[in-house]
Amino acid sequence: MQYSFEAIIFDLDGVITRTARVHSQSWKETFDEYLKLREERDGEPFKEFTHDGDYLPYVDGKPRYKGVQTFLQSRNINIPFGDPRDPPEKETCCGIGNRKNDKFRAVLLRDGCDIYEPTVQFVRDCKKAGIRVAVASSSRNCKIILEKAGLLDLFEARVDGMVSAERGLKGKPAGEIFVAACRDMGCDPGKSVVVEDATSGVLAGRNGGFRLVLGIARKNDVIALLRNGADIAVKDMKEITLDDIEAWFSSQPHPLPESWNMLAEPRLTFSDKEIAINTRVNRPLAKILNPKKKCVFFLDYDGTLTPIVDKPELAIMDETMRNVLKLLLKKHVVSIVSGRQREDVEKLVKIDGIVYAGSHGFDIAGPECTMINPAVKALMPQVNALTQTLEKQIGNIENVLIEKKKFSVAAHYRLVKHRSDIELIRRAVNEIVTANNNFRLMSGKMVFEILPNIEWNKGLALQWIMKALKFKWKDHNLFYIGDDVTDEYALRFIQTRGIGILVSEDATCSSAHFVLKTPKDVKAFFTKILEIT
Predict the structure, then answer these.
(1) DSSP 8-state code for residue 523
(2) Residue closest to 204 by CA, chosen among 417, 38, 10, 468
(3) What is the domain partition of the chain in residue ranges?
(4) Separation CA 347–CA 353 (nearest Å)
(5) pLDDT tens digits, residue range 340-349?
(6) Is 301:336 a contact under the CB 8 Å cutoff?
């Protein structure tokens, strides 16, 4: 079977391997040695370190140095916190933590670690099916753990604590280690899966914009995993198959307004299996929407607030839509996130008080926030050079429209009549991107766009705006409404946090929960929201 997803990124501990026993033993050896030293040196009575009495309440789940500090404080022992570079023999929390890491490696090499056989078999099934597999972990011992378990060669890519330090990647709940592992294999997070057993990990998968975040409830914490970002949760990998994952990727959003109070049928079901599905997937909108909460609307422009037209300059929003947006803005928060330049969107919309995010979120400005992605500024001269190159190569093709933007350049081929000319355009943009690692190609509706090769998109822009406005997800009804493939970044990001709506007249797979057919339907939806909030 040919699957529509590209890759699966697995967390290590709790997903592939079971190192809790190794961690507990190495902590015990480290603390018992230190407590005996204090008995001999300071005359303090020795009381051994135990798994239930000390490891679980004071150390388990905490960062290593914090775990040292918390346990010692429970014994009324106060020593300097120290520096992560402290040698293992130094009497600081960091020094003792580094001593524990040495112990961990020694215990691991001596005793080995357990593995979750169903996960390992699932990885092998992926490889047989042509699905790419990688491991992403915050552990600096990831490589040695996999080597000791005989699993290192099973994975195509590995991003662990050592790699993260070298590349300057942020740890969980940021999604950077998962995204890096995915990109290292040449894969797209939007066509890939994250498998995690911790709440911080599923949150990282959500923040990374992955199409499916699968939680493994080793601690019987299904609800916590779903609340923190998991789309579905299982208790073990033996409960799910590649065909189940394919069912997720091929699912389609519910039609609105038919699904306001009742769903005609569930979007996704897994019969005879212990698979928990996030409640947003199979619930009508009225069950998700809380009319007592303020709404935050993130909206695309072209194809969402205006119909798709032959030329960008013809996409003029009608006055009735503008008036509805003004009414929404009196009660709620509105942000427009567009591929157009921010200044162009502001001129077209003509409404003060909206947060405008242009150039796919590279450029943001609103009443209480403003930002131009700093990484993109240095590439502006190269954008101009690429635009000139593109004009020379395809500018003479009949009806091609080259849209010059501040941070990108787009080639629209909606009016191009001959298929051979479209192939010339496709070849030209591909050659330009292939020759310059600083840029990437994004394909939209009848358009190719060359963008800076920076890990930034509409989903990350949405996250930035929420943080800048100091909004918490749980305190608001969050909506994202868009019509293009570029909007899928944001739709995946809010999948378990808000309500995603696709604007499309065609049945299609999407991360959106619901679908409206036209901008006219979007306007009617806004009117309905105004009536009930």
Answers:
(1) H
(2) 10
(3) 7-18+114-249, 20-111, 293-373+456-532, 376-452
(4) 13
(5) 899 999 999 9
(6) yes
| CA–CA dist 77, 54 (Å, integer) | 14
CATH 3.40.50.720 fits 7-18+114-249, yes or no: no
DSSP reduced 3-state for 514:
strand
Asked if 210 and 243 count as a contact pair (C-beta separation under 8 A), the reply is no
Taking the C-alpha atoms of residue 500 and residue 512, their distance in angstroms, rounded to an integer, is: 4
Token pair listed for 267: 């979007």
Q: Tokens in use for 394?
A: 């395809």
Q: What is the pLDDT of residues 288-327, one digit of tens each?
A: 998 888 999 999 999 999 998 777 777 788 999 999 999 9
Q: How far is 285 from 273, CA to CA, in rounded Å?
A: 26
Catalytic residue among 13, 184, 221, 300: 13
> What's the CA angle centered on 384, arms 357 and 414, to 5 degrees?
65
Q: Would you call 236 a catalytic residue per the annotation? A: no
pTM (2 decimals)?
0.86
Catalytic site includes residue 11: yes
Among residues 375, 343, 393, which one has the least CA distance to residue 439? 375
Q: Is 293-373+456-532 a CATH 3.40.50.1000 domain?
A: yes
